[in-house]
Amino acid sequence: MNLKELDLKHIWHPCTQMKDHEFLPLLTVKNAKGVYLYDYNNKAYIDCISSWWVNLFGHCNEYINSKITEQLSKLEHVLLAGCSHEGVIRLSARLCKILEKHKLNKCFYADNGSSSIEIALKMAFHYFANKNEKRKKFLALSNSYHGETVAALSVGDVKLYKKHYEDLLLDVLLTPVAQGEDFSKELEFLEKLLEKEGENICAFILEPLIQCAGNMHMYSANFIDEAIKLCRKYGILIIFDEVAVGFGRTNTMFALEQSKAKPDLLCLSKGITGGYLPLSVLICTDEIYNAFYDDYEKNKAFLHSHSYTGNALACAAANAVLDIFENDNVLENNKILSKFIKNEFESLKEFDFLGNFRQCGMVYAFDIIKNKRQRAGLFVYEKALEKGLLLRPLANTIYFMPPFVIKNDEVSYVVSSLREIFSTNQL
Ligand SMILES: *Cc1c(COP(=O)(O)O)cnc(C)c1O
By its UniProt entry, which Gene3D superfamilies does this protein fall under (predicted)? Predict the structure, then answer.
């Protein structure tokens, strides 16, 4: 039996109607290097989406490989309750140093983005309980996405993922996300909502600057500032979900550097290990931490845990990622690269069935605004695979979110391949 048959016999793939694989090819990857994935015929595919937004410095990056190998001969894993290890200590100190001026100073680890969201929500709720204040609602933005475990799904607003589980989910308040630079109506809505519910809300959670799974909706940092200003009047905690946008995606190390308002809790994952190993971290202020710090009998501790919390191999990868940011001038280079990406992709504006061209840092996106066929995004996905590109359109939004090591000629190849696909006029 070949690999693909054996796969479909036993594997239930994520985020997939498995019946689609009756016609949709399954890409089995034999090996990878840099931005390229190779199949068993040694055909190369450019990973245009950083393998679901996790890969920063290419596949099989020599430096990260060497750091994981080095760690592997010392310590693979140890529980993080009662024990610690150098990698997680260094990583925490480095992250907190970067975030020092934003007062984010305590790291709580888990092993995936959704878990970091669960932690943030539980922690915010528990914070108020420890202060003898009863608050039990959460506030989120329309079109948001925070992961797919039950609480994370509750604070999301992407119907596709949510619709079957409505009866299971937490009671969450939604307020509209800004669409352009005039967001007075959205703020008015929020103001009214807060007048009624402000004192019942533990936390306002948002993905700063880009709602990635929300079809790459990019929105104003000014809106974030104004919305948070309103929330602060009611003592509401602020959670930034930078699971996708953290680690340089928006051309600053963290998106929070681009707003004046700062969070009390920050969730990071995806790029943290450069796409190597599962790891996430919630970083909060001392103010939050101190609300849990007391004699055991006072019953205030945050008794949350995951088996693989702070895994040593994952921390070695994460420290290697921070080394690369420090040594390779990544953010400055990305500013130049993102300009090149913009210029190349804008040439696709000639197609009148494409629109809403937009960019934030190392994320470029546009929409298919007129299409004859259903699932036009999926059609582009298939055609792109034939041309050696791994894309994964979100419905009819096509986006480019490559590893930072992509070269100009590779970007140009992606755009010229897309142009060929669009020129056939089959959408
Ligand atoms: C991917 C993502 C999550 C969930 O992370 P997982 O590791 O997939 O559980 C949460 N928030 C945002 C913004 C994401 O993009």
Answer: Aspartate Aminotransferase, domain 1, Type I PLP-dependent aspartate aminotransferase-like (Major domain)
Domain map (residue ranges) of the chain? 3-61+329-424, 65-327
Tokens at 46, concatenated: 């450019």
Query: Would you state the structure tokens that stand for residue 374, as one six-digit string?
Result: 């259903």
- Half-sphere exposure at residue 190, Cβ-oriented, CA atoms within 13 angstroms: 28
Ligand 1 atom nearest the C-alpha of 245 is 13
Structure tokens at 206: 């948002």
Quote the CA–CA distance of 166 and 154 in Å, as a whole number. 8
Read off the pLDDT of residues 239-297 as tens digits, 9 standing for 90 and up. Answer: 999 999 999 999 999 999 999 999 999 999 999 999 999 999 999 999 999 999 999 99
> Does the pLDDT at position 60 exceed 80?
yes
Give the DSSP H or E segment for 108: strand 104-110
Q: What is the CATH number of domain 3-61+329-424?
A: 3.90.1150.10
CA dist 36 and 345 (Å) reads: 20
Residue nearest to atom 5 of ligand 1 (CA): 113
Specify the DSSP class assigned to residue 253. Answer: S
| E strands in 271-329 | 280-285
Does the annotation list 392 as a binding residue?
yes
Work out the number of other CB atoms within 10 angstroms of the CB of residue 170. 15
Domain 65-327 has CATH 3.30.565.10: no
Model confidence, pTM: 0.98
